[in-house]
Amino acid sequence: MKTLLVTGGAGFIGSNFVHYVVENTDAHVTVLDKLTYAGNRASLDGVPKERLGFVHGDIADPAVVNSLVADADAVVHFAAESHNDNSLQDPRPFLDTNIMGTYTLLEAVRRHDKRFHHISTDEVYGDLELDDPQRFTESTPYNPSSPYSSTKAGSDLLVRAWVRSFGVQATISNCSNNYGPYQHVEKFIPRQITNVIDGIRPKLYGAGENVRDWIHANDHSSAVLTILERGQIGETYLIGADGEKNNKDVVELILTTMGEPAAGYDHVLDRPGHDLRYAIDSTRLRTELGWTPKFSDFESGLASTVEWYRNNEAWWRPQKAATEAKYVTQGQ
Ligand code: NAD
Ligand code: TDX
Predict the structure, then answer these.
(1) How far apart are CA 7 and CA 79, in angstroms?
(2) Is 112 left (phi over 0), alpha (psi -120 to 50) or beta?
(3) Which atom of ligand 1 is nearest to the CA of 122?
(4) Residue 158's CB: how many other CB atoms inside 10 A?
(5) In this structure, which residue's CA is closest to atom 37 in ligand 1?
(6) pTM, to two decimals
């Protein structure tokens, strides 16, 4: 594929994907991004100019989307409102971007008959009990909990319907929690790393028993490229790296990695409707498409992420004070 249109390419995972594609293929990438509070043009610094186009625009704007889709060989769709806590305060942008934006893209790829890959989340499956031996698979029923995850579930169902009803050439992937460079300081791991840098005690929601299945953003990128190149049209692939950890263990690891006592954190108000546990079974992606993750050691992946935030304060500093001020008003 020579030309990729990447929506949300100035966000956390989208920017990691753009860097990955430019380093590992010959493709030209055009990013379409609205540069919401979560988008940062600087996350694409270092990508050679001749390999990258950047369009500042909204995926729910049919005029912009149509002309960009017409010029692309394939579309990889990362753009979304992505933060559960924000979706509990103000759900509307989640509907506008995650539902109407995805609909607008689907109509364009249908019109121009272009390959489409839709990025989604394991949160569409709801949550698991801590002691449940089952993990999510491609056939787990949808059961989303939050406004965020319900709009992601809705967008997945739109993609499936456009495949079945209109023959759109689409694949879907549902990935577990990502960590790595360029993640907004509102999210769990970067929030705590930058808190420690600022001398603020990390904040754990509730008892901290909730389990997330961590994967490095670089491994998510390699999986998406694998599906784009070799995935079967109309199919869904789960992406995960066997990285289950509870939040308490992650906070303690951040603290000790950064040279602080493991107990130096605060318990704060829990998230309403807080999903207990996510866990991905990525057997299909591994056996059918031959994908394997490279960052299998969470401790060293976390240590390099800590180093990235220490070395890139200019990237995150402008968002930090406002993000913490918002959490304080929420009792978190
Ligand atoms: P992010 O919030 O860091 O980035 C989202 C990007 O989309 C930003 O650059 C933002 O400006 C852009 N955007 C938002 N609304 C837009 C619109 N209307 N038009 C154009 N651009 C718009 O999100 P992320 O964490 O990088 O997540 C990317 C995708 O991956 C999302 O679809 C998310 O659901 C999915 N996902 C995320 C995770 C995770 O752990 N972060 C895990 C699984 C799946
Ligand atoms: O300060 C915090 N303290 C805390 O204990 C924050 C910000 C979070 N948490 C907890 C809540 C979750 O159990 O940490 C866990 C991770 O929280 P988030 O980083 O907000 O991620 P999560 O809600 O799990 O969703 C993420 O993974 C799936 C992404 O934000 C989604 O976009 C993705 O779909």
Answers:
(1) 5
(2) alpha
(3) 43
(4) 19
(5) 121
(6) 0.99
CA distance linking residue 14 with residue 234, whole number of Å: 22
Is the per-residue pLDDT at 111 higher than 80?
yes
* Active-site residue, from 122, 127, 156, 219: 122
Torsion 82-148-220-22 (CA) sign: negative
Q: Is 218 in the pocket of ligand 2 (CB under 6 A)?
A: no
- Measured CA angle at 267 (ends 81, 274), to 5 deg: 40
Q: Give residue limits of the domains in the chain.
A: 3-184+215-243+274-295
Contact 298, 214 (CB under 8 A): yes
Q: 311: which residues sit within 8 A by CB, 6+ positions away?
A: none
Q: In this predicted model, what pLDDT tens digit does every residue of 286-306 receive, in sequence order?
A: 999 999 999 989 999 999 999
Q: Are 8 and 82 in contact (CB under 8 A)?
A: no
Burial of 254 (0-12, 13-18, 19+ CB in 10 A): buried
Fold of 3-184+215-243+274-295: Rossmann fold (3.40.50)
Residue nearest to atom 41 of ligand 1 (CA): 178
Nearest residue to 38 (alpha-carbon basis) of 5, 100, 87, 107: 87
Contact between 29 and 21 under an 8 Å Cβ cutoff? The reply is yes
Grade residue 221 by pLDDT with cuts at 50, 70 and 90.
very high
Mutation probe of ligand 2 site: the residue of 150, 172, 212 with most atoms within 8 A of C-beta: 212
Q: 90: phi > 0 → left, psi -120 to 50 → alpha, else beta; which?
A: beta
Nearest residue to 145 (alpha-carbon basis) of 131, 129, 118, 125: 125
Compute φ and ψ for 115, nearest 5 degrees: -65, 135
- Cα–Cα distance, 8 to 80 (Å, whole number): 7
